[in-house]
Amino acid sequence: MPQEVTDLGHVLKHGLFAVFTFILAGYFFFKGYSMPSSAALFPQLVAGLVFLLSGAMVFQSLREAKNRSGEPASGAAVEQKIHVPRVILFTALIALYIFLIPRIGYFVATPLFMVVMYMFLRAIGFFRAILISLGFSVFIYFLFIWFLKLPIPMGLLERFFEV
Amino acid sequence: MIVDNILLGLSSVFTGYNMLAVAAGTGLGLVVGAMPGLSATMAIALLVPVTFVMPPETGISMLASIYMGAMYGGSIAAILVRTPGTPAAAATIMDGYPMAQKGEAGRALGISLTASFFGGLISSVFLLTIAPVLGGIAVMFGPVELFSVAVLGMTIIGSLSQGSAIKGLLAGAIGLLFSTVGMDSITGIPRFTLGNINLFSGIPFTVALIGLFSIPQAIRLIERDEGAVERINSITDRILLPWKEIRPLIPTFIRSGLIGVFTGIIPGTGGDTACWFAYNEAKRFSDDKESFGKGNPYGLAAPEAANNAVVGGALIPTISLGIPGSSSTAVLLGGLMIHGIMPGPTLMTEYAGVTYTLLWAILLSNFFMLAEGIVFTKACIFVTRISNRILSVAIVVLCVIGSFAINNSFFEVGLMFAFGILGYFMDKLKIPVAPLVVGLILGRMLDVSLHQSLLMSQGSWMIFLTNPISAVLLTIAFFSLIQSTPMYTRWRTSRKKSREKNNP
Hints:
The structure holds two protein chains of two kinds. Chain A is mainly α. Chain A has helices at residues 2-31, 37-68, 75-78, 84-104, 106-121, 126-147, 158-162.
C-alpha cells in the first residue's frame, strides 16, 4: 500500500510540473499569434517542443510507476525524511526578507533575517547568531558598498549613514 | 594570428592584477570546494556580480580559477568527512577516506593535490592547443552552421544529462523558451514581457543562474536533519609527497587526465561522470584490484586527476563554439555576458584578449592550486566543520545582494527567487537544471541564426540539410537523440542478450 501511494505521488508530481510547463508553453504559443510571423516562429517551435516533451515526461512517469509497483521499497524510500514545514517556512522567510529590504533597508533586514533564521533553524545560540549576522553584514558592507559602490537601500539607517 | 593571440594572453595573465585575481579565485575555490554540499557552480554564480567591476579578462580568469580550485577543494571534504565537497569528488571518498582512517590523511590529501595538479595541467595544455584551432574553424561558420552547432549542443547536453533524456531535453526547451523573452533582435518588438518594462531587455541570465544554482542548494542544506558525521579531526602526516611516491602514480595521472579532458569536451558530462570513469579504469589497469576501496593511492589519484582535467576539457567547446560543456562553464559564459561579451565563435577573434588570458589563467591556476593547497589544506579542516544551517542562511543573503548588484533592481531579486523555487522543484523531480541554463544562453543564437538562415534560403528549411557541415552536425544531433530513447536501450539490451545466447 505505501508503495502505491509513493507511485501515485510520483505521477502526480510529474503531472503537476507538466501542467506548469503546458501553461507556460501555451502562453508563448498563443501569444505568438499577435506578433509578426518572423518574431513568433522560434518561440512557437520551442513551445511545441515543450508540449511534446511534457507529455512524454508524464507518460514516462506512468511507466516508471507501473514498473516499480510490486518491487520492494528502494533505498530512496528509506532516506531521511524532508521536513516540509521547515522548507515552506524557510522559503516564506526568504520572500519576506526580499519584501522588507526596500522598506526597512538592507542593513536592518539582513541581520534581522539572519538572526531569525538561525533561531528558527536552531543552528546556533542567540548571541552567536547576533555576532555572525553582524560580522556577515560588515563583510557585505565592505565588499558591495565600499568596493563595488553598490547603491543599497539603507531604509531606517539612511539618516545614520548620511551623517 | 593564433600565436600572436597566445602571446597576447600570456603577457596579459602575468600582470599583477590578473595574477592576484587568479590566486584569489583559486584560494576561494579551494575553501568553497572544501565545504560539503557547496558546488563550484554555485560559488561561481555568486561571485559573478563581484567581478562586474573588474576588467573582463580579470573577472573571467578569477571565476575560472574558482572552478579549478573547487575541484581540488572537493577532495578535502571527501577525504576528511567522507562527504564529497563537490559532486565531482564522489569517487574520491572510495579510497581517500580509508587512507585517512589509517592515519594517512596528509598523504591522501597530498596524492589528491598532486593528481589535481597533473590533471589540471594536462587539460590546460589541451585547452591551449585545441581551443584556438577549433575556434579558427568555427569563425568560418555562417548562420546555417551556427544554428546546427547550437542544436547539436542542446541535444547532447539534454540527452546526456544524468537521469532521463526527456527531462534533460524538456529543461533545455524551457530554457530556450525563457530566452525569447525581451526585445526580438530581428523585428525589434518586445516579446512575452507581460507589459513589464524590466523584462524588455530579456531575462537577465546571471540572475536566473544565481537563483537556479544557489537557492535550491540553500534549501537542500536545511531540508533534512544533520546527522552525526564521521570525520577525521587532525592531519598528523605530511601533505608534500616525496618524488619516489609521485613517480609510480604518473601513468595514472596521465590516463585519468586524458579521460577527464575528453569527458569534459562532451557537453552535458562533467566531473561527476569523469571521476567514476577514471576510477573504474584505474581499477581495471591495476594488478591489485582487491585493495581498491580500502585506501589504494591509485584509486584516489585517478578521480582527482580526472575531475580537474574536466575543467580544461569543458572549456574547449565553451570557448571555441560558445557551447558550455558543463554547468560551471555555462555560468562562466554568464560571467562573460555581463561584460557584454556574447558567446560564440567571436570569442576567439573579437575578444581574443579576454579569451586567451582565460586560457593562460587556467594553466596558471594549477600552480597556485598546488602552492595554496600545500599551505592551506590543513587550515581547511576547520571549513569542513561549518554547519549546513549556518551556510544556507549565508548563501541566501549572498544570492539576494548578488542578484541586486547586477542591475540595482529589486525586480531582479524577485526573479532570482522565482528561478530558485523553479530550480528546487526541478531538483526534486530529478529534472537537470544545467540544460535550462544552456538553453537560456543558446536561445538567442538559435533564434537569430534560424532567421538569417531562412532569409538566405527564402524560407526553405532544406538549407540545413544541403549545407554539408550543417547536415553532418544535425545527423549527429539526431543520433544523440535516438541513443537516448528507451527504444534504443531496449534494442541494445535485446541485441546483447541474443549475442550472449549465441556465444554462451
